[in-house]
């Protein structure tokens, strides 16, 4: 942690915080510490082009609910926050102590998300929590899934995949641009910023990461004729999947997606749930989502 600034809301201690990743990025976020503090905390990973300050209603409800349970809560920007971002990076050669790293949703490197998650977990462990529940929403679910399957962090006792919808399958027209993007990468132009290929400016490398079925980021291949869900199937800790019945991003009935997850999990403690009538961001159904999260964590 580099900086913090406390504020009190309805008796709850919430603060703005800044963490440093293994590769030196400075990421801002918020932390809520309950008045009666127990040993468990929750780390939230936001979705594609989102940020810790976007889903205000959901965050407020989570903070209020976790306060009653004595659980800490942290939500930091990832290096993929917002559409594009010049993220400060520690740099001893700069008179300011930092330089800028090109990232944001259009330019981030998916595999580096493990640095962001580790920094968030380290922050909570330093606060005195020894059990961390990792929640990833939307593309944050891709990151949480990838992290949990690939890392062996003894502090992570459960993972919750919220809105785990495939970016590739929800953008079927993207595949026609893949040959062009790969050509640009071969020509050394993989970090060039392009307009008109997605809803935000994007580099060829990032485009391939999002939409190539062979990328590390494509962990939710439930739409294939024979889904493999290889990364998902490696998660061995308690696992909760939350889906929205009317998810506008999904390319198929959500029930089919749920069935694919259900048939590929090896987690000994597993549950999947569909929130009735909810959209991808749960608009108007935040309280139902919070209830599912609270019930799940309480049962661990």
Which secondary structure elements does this structure contain, and how are they paired or packed?
Blueprint: E1 3-9, E2 12-20, E3 26-33, E4 40-45, H1 56-69, E5 72-76, E6 85-90, E7 98-103, H2 113-126, E8 131-137, H3 139-150, E9 156-162, H4 178-186, H5 204-211, E10 239-244, H6 254-264, E11 270-275, H7 286-299
Parallel strand pairs: 4-5, 4-8, 8-9, 9-10, 10-11
Antiparallel strand pairs: 1-2, 2-3, 3-5, 6-7
* Total of DSSP H or I helical runs spanning 4+ residues: 7
Strand arrangement in the largest pleated sheet: 1-2-3-5-4-8-9-10-11
Shape: globular
State the share of residues found in helices, binned by percent: 25-40%
Largest sheet: 9 strands, mixed
* Termini gap: 28 Å
**Overall pLDDT, averaged?**
95
Q: Structural class of the helices, strands and pairings? A: alpha/beta
Radius of gyration: 19 Å
Low-confidence sequence ranges = none
Helix-strand sequence: EEEEHEEEHEHEHHEHEH
- Tell how many strands the DSSP assignment holds: 11
Portion of residues in beta strands equals 15-25%
Structure description:
The chain is α/β, with parallel strands linked by helices. Helices cover 27% and strands 24% of the residues. The protein has seven helices and eleven strands. It has helices at residues 56-69, 113-126, 139-150, 178-186, 204-211, 254-264, 286-299, and strands at 3-9, 12-20, 26-33, 40-45, 72-76, 85-90, 98-103, 131-137, 156-162, 239-244, 270-275. The strands form two sheets. A nine-stranded mixed sheet has the order 1-2-3-5-4-8-9-10-11, with helices on both faces. Strands 6-7 form a two-stranded antiparallel ribbon. A hairpin with a 7-residue loop joins strand 6 (85-90) and strand 7 (98-103). The protein is globular and about 55 Å long. The model has no long low-confidence stretch (mean pLDDT 95).
